[in-house]
Amino acid sequence: MQWNSVGEFFAMGGYALYVWGSFGACALLMIAEPFLAKRRLSDVRKSLARERLADELELQQKNS
User: Fold this and answer.
1) How far is CA 23 from the centre of its chain?
2) 19-59: pLDDT as tens digits
3) How far is CA 20 from CA 3, 6, 50, 62, 64, in A?
4) Could you give the C-alpha distances from 5 to 8, 9, 17, 37, in angstroms and in order?
């Protein structure tokens, strides 16, 4: 596709809202995903630590 001006490029042949909206949504998700993955990893680690602590306490109670 060939554009004669910057305005035509950004208009995308009348599909600018769809094209730039899709591009923006994709960019937003690509930026947000690492932060969300880091938070999920932190939550899993906290959950595993709580579970391990609960198992240790249960084991101590059985041995007492």
Assistant:
1) 16
2) 999 999 999 999 999 999 999 999 999 999 999 999 999 99
3) 16, 14, 45, 62, 66
4) 5, 6, 18, 41
State the DSSP code for 5: S
Angular region, 32: left φ>0, alpha ψ -120 to 50, beta rest = alpha
pTM for the structure as a whole: 0.67
**Rounded Cα–Cα distance for residues 50 and 56 (Å):** 10
> Residue 15 gets which letter from DSSP?
T
Residue 63 near residue 56, CB atoms below 8 Å? no
Residues 6+ apart with CB under 8 A from 12: 18, 19, 20
